């Protein structure tokens, strides 16, 4: 019994570590696109016809397209500007994927009655879908507090 518990703990640690590493790599690789997306999301835009007619009251949008935004961020902040907010992003995605990997394996083990990956492949589409949904919900709840911090830091331009 002791060996089985040790094996389950080792498997949970492997799942957690694999999920955290996968999340860290994917977050770091996609950070530049995330920074650009957030800059578009947080810039103020005139929203009604009346405000569009009063163009002299508004500056033109700072970020107007992917290429222009990329050049603007690089010019103002350098290459590291594309990774602004990446550390809080890692604090979001690494726990998210770690929790997701671990909970997915545990739920599939529960549903199939076995911890073997080949038995998990035999699960019905219903149980497989339910397992993924439950893992995603658990990961979201576990990592959500870091999302606000990531968004705030990534949306800051210069000056801070």
Automatic annotation (TrEMBL):
UniProt-listed SUPFAM superfamilies: Mitochondrial carrier
Gene Ontology biological-process annotations: organic anion transport; organophosphate ester transport; transmembrane transport
Membrane topology, from the record: Multi-pass membrane protein
Repeat region (Solcar), residues: 10-110
Compartments (UniProt record): Membrane
GO (cellular component) term, any one: membrane
UniProt keyword list: Membrane, Repeat, Transmembrane, Transport
Pfam families linked to this entry: Mito_carr
Protein biosynthesis keyword on record: no
Keyword Iron: no
Family: Belongs to the mitochondrial carrier (TC 2.A.29) family.
The protein, known as: Mitochondrial thiamine pyrophosphate carrier-like protein
Source organism phylogeny: Eukaryota, Viridiplantae, Streptophyta, Embryophyta, Tracheophyta
């Amino acid at each position: 019994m002791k060996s089985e518990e040790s094996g389950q703990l080792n498997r949970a640690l492997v799942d957690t570590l694999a999920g955290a590493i996968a999340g860290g790599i994917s977050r770091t690789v996609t950070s530049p696109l995330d920074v650009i997306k957030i800059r578009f999301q947080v810039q103020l835009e005139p929203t009604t016809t009346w405000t569009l007619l009063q163009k002299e009251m508004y500056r033109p949008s700072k970020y107007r397209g992917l290429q222009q935004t990329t050049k603007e961020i690089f010019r103002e902040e350098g290459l590291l500007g594309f990774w602004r907010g990446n550390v809080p992003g890692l604090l979001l995605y690494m726990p998210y994927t770690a929790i997701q990997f671990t909970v997915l394996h545990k739920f599939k083990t529960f549903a199939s009655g076995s911890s073997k990956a080949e038995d998990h492949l035999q699960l019905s589409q219903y149980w497989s879908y339910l397992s993924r949904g439950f893992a995603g919900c658990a990961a979201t709840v576990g990592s959500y507090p870091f999302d606000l911090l990531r968004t705030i830091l990534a949306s800051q331009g210069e000056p801070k």
